[in-house]
Amino acid sequence: xxxxxxxxxxxxxxxxxxxxxxxxxxxxxxxxxxxxxxxxxxxxxxxxxxxxxxxxxxxxxxxxxxxxxxxxxxxxxxxxxxxxxxxxxxxxxxxxxxxxxxxxxxxxxxxxxxxxxxxxxxxxxxxxxxxxxxxxxxxxxxxxxxxxxxxxxxxxxxxxxxxxxxxxxxxxxxxxxxxxxxxxxxxxxxxxxxxxxxxxxxxxxxxxxxxxxxxxxxxxxxxxxxxxxxxxxxxxxxxxxxxxxxxxxxxxxxxxxxxxxxxxxxxxxxxxxxxxxxxxxxxxxxxxxxxxxxxxxxxxxxxxxxxxxxxxxxxxxxxxxxxxxxxxxxxxxxxxxxxxxxxxxxxxxxxxxxxxxxxxxxxxxxxxxxxxxxxxxxxxxxxxxxxxxxxxxxxxxxxxxxxxxxxxxxxxxxxxxxxxxxxxxxxxxxxxxxxxxxxxxxxxxxxxxxxxxxxxxxxxxxxxxxxxxxxxxxxxxxxxxxxxxxxxxxxxxxxxxxxxxxxxxxxxxxxxxxxxxxxxxxxxxxxxxxxxxxxxxxxxxxxxxxxxxxxxxxxxxxxxxxxxxxxxxxxxxxxxxxxxxxxxxxxxxxxxxxxxxxxxxxxxxxxxxxxxxxxxxxxxxxxxxxxxxxxxxxxxxxxxxxxxxxxxxxxxxxxxxxxxxxxxxxxxxxxxxxxxxxxxxxxxxxxxxxxxxxxxxxxxxxxxxxxxxxxxxxxxxxxxxxxxxxxxxxxxxxxxxxxxxxxxxxxxxxxxxxxxxxxxxxxxxxxxxxxxxxxxxxxxxxxxxxxxxxxxxxxxxxxxxxxxxxxxxxxxxxxxxxxxxxxxxxxxxxxxxxxxxxxxxxxxxxxxxxxxxxxxxxxxxxxxxxxxxxxxxxxxxxxxxxxxxxxxxxxxxxxxxxxxxxxxxxxxxxxxxxxxxxxxxxxxxxxxxxxxxxxxxxxxxxxxxxxxxxxxxxxxxxxxxxxxxxxxxxxxxxxxxxxxxxxxxxxxxxxxxxxxxxxxxxxxxxxxxxxxxxxxxxxxxxxxxxxxxxxxxxxxxxxxxxxxxxxxxxxxxxxxxxxxxxxxxxxxxxxxx
Length: 1073
What we know:
Keywords: Disulfide bond, EGF-like domain, Glycoprotein, Signal. Strand 18 and strand 19 form a beta hairpin. By secondary structure, the protein is mostly beta strands. It contains two helices and 75 strands. The strands form 20 sheets. Strands 13, 14, 15, 16, 17, 18, 19, 20 and 21 form a nine-stranded mixed sheet that branches. The N and C termini lie far apart (126 Å).
């Protein structure tokens, strides 16, 4: 074919242009935010790339930032459509030119569909400038709503090895479980270096079991960590599902990782995709960090914090920020804050304070809310130290954080020296509550609340809303309210209201008495009734004021859930208060002789028992005040210093007893005279679990109190002495000496070194040194003393020997850092209890023994320098108990206790029981000699007491009966064999087995045909350790009850008796006529 020259030139030029066009400079752009694999898949979906007219090459963006097609699959990935498409292979390098990559997909509605769908391949090219271009084409038309996925990574202009945030969260470790802390609630931003109590740790690279790392699914790297020469790499993140059985049931969003000089890694953590996922740390990778040194400095100087503080104004810190309900804000973690000095709290610009009480499910923006354990000080008290507790759901004192200093300031506000909370507490957050005096008298400025359904006699079934429960958390409360019922003045009840009354499922009532006129505005606790207890939960406290005219006003706030404030139906107005200042009160006695009472301020007994101190925890000899012959009035002392009873909750097992007694009400003022106060005993995490007998109290000149103690209601109860409330015997005098804002304080004053110790300084830290007579022949034994009892253990060490080795007492803790030691007479005492204070105790079974293992851990303290720059103290100890036993010896005795060596043996006991019941609900146990008939159904419960029901279950292996008191007797009838009912006896039903520490079964009564009138019952059971399903046998070999079997009208057989040969009761069956 002949072509003219000009046409040839044109065709040649066109062909040349097509070949040389570089897609790196000739591309279209796509910027659709919904293509992001990191966005919520259900936020924006329904897009379909089959409907797009694709033409040529494309470069991806997300919100203006350069992006790339994803190489990684994420569970439930839709990328704006129903089927998210991603590259099945890595991106090419610059040197590779144009390559072809397969495209696969995952469906938005399934978590395990990664790679289950295949689309058409696409071409990819890497371009100078660190980006990629893609020749996208129409996806496979058989796919449902396919959409190309994109992911973007922020630039790393600063080396993340030197620009990261430290994340010390030991509760993320692979050996932690039991909580559900969800990482999607945290505010992730940037790079993080992981720590475990200050030591290096890294993410796991292998499978993590479901429910590990205190999350529903623990996240781990599906790929090895990089080397330093690899630079920044991207890794897939997997999570195992407890019921799924796989290691990578879920695929979370990929993250970037980098290896750093110094043998550590940094991670660019992002918000996980869905559900309760949590990044894990692998305890097998713990390594020591490089030691750092800080030059020693002079003694610290302290400035008046009332005029030198930082402002902390976070609305999310409010105690009204409940978990799971309105305003629920999570993601805050005060262990990540760089605390420096003193702070004054505000909420939305209004002055606030830390709460010195707790509310169920209090969040304060984090997972664990932190509150003061102890009342705020007065201006005259200066700087005081207060314990800080952390809540866990409805358990207010579940965690113990680091103590802080508090000071009351002129102008009616407080300042706090906030420090980094205990890192073992999951996402702790300091709480705040608005604080201040009303500008207008609420008695003259209130809203009338007249709603008859609030009546204490109105069950919510009777609401005209047809069984609708009223909920005050839907009300926008604002200011003060006065209660009425049908136009008649009313008040909130001060005692328990039955569940379901006041028109609501959960009625609210005051836990404390109403104030008097002279009390002004007071704060009162609010209880919420439930099925099992009057105060099943604590709602948010409210302010109350008594008003002239015999009525009250209340500053209502939103309760924690669907509950409603109650109003008393038949309210009797307050009797007027008559005050006479001229004469002291008189009392009438029987016989009615009027007399003037002797002032107890000058006629009291001195009570100076050191063991009553609130700081005395887990005292070895339990004390009980019910055995004391109380007579008259008493004044409290500790070590000769005047103290007072605590008027806030005291930790259980304090004050030398089980349930410490404290005043449930404020101490009176001098002008109040003699007042009566309720007394509470703390037990089972309930500050007022026991309500003891009320006592009378009086405030006396000289700043002290006297108490008219009476016998408590039970044992082991004992009155407490708050050794943090030292007072003087004379009114303190004041001076007009003016000082500058800064002054130097003596740090030895707060150490209280004993007569065998002396206070000194070591590397910038003050502590108690040992005198010569306290030197230990074994330098690293610290003069230890240990005991084991039941499922608990304790260990005490010499404080001065520890300090001389480089460890202050307050830096030591058990495996759970919330379990710190208490100082008593120069010794640091530690305790764990496997029922209420587990303290990280590890429980294992080896087939023959149960072993409780724990350790004391401490790192050297630094204050402008380190006591020890290298040493870490770790003292291991354990309690070992045999598992196999019989009922005649139903207690488990510890064989040995270890602290880097074999220590003297302790003793411990477990109770094994078998109880017969008359009914299938197991609510009516048989007691003593019981009437029964042949073929009558008997219900039996077999259980083990004194073990942790969260770690053990009881399994019945066999149960059998014999006609004589010998479990090995040749004549026997099997009821249960091989954990199953005997197939030859169809009356046996196994009702519960292997689900708790109690197992249950039933059978119909019978007798042996060999003229025997007695039946002995025996069971063999074993304890299963839930953590590894390893079980060891514990045998019940003795009879537990005795039942007389006869006709309904026949008298009991005279041979019916209890067997003295067995520690249990005889099952005595007499043949019916």
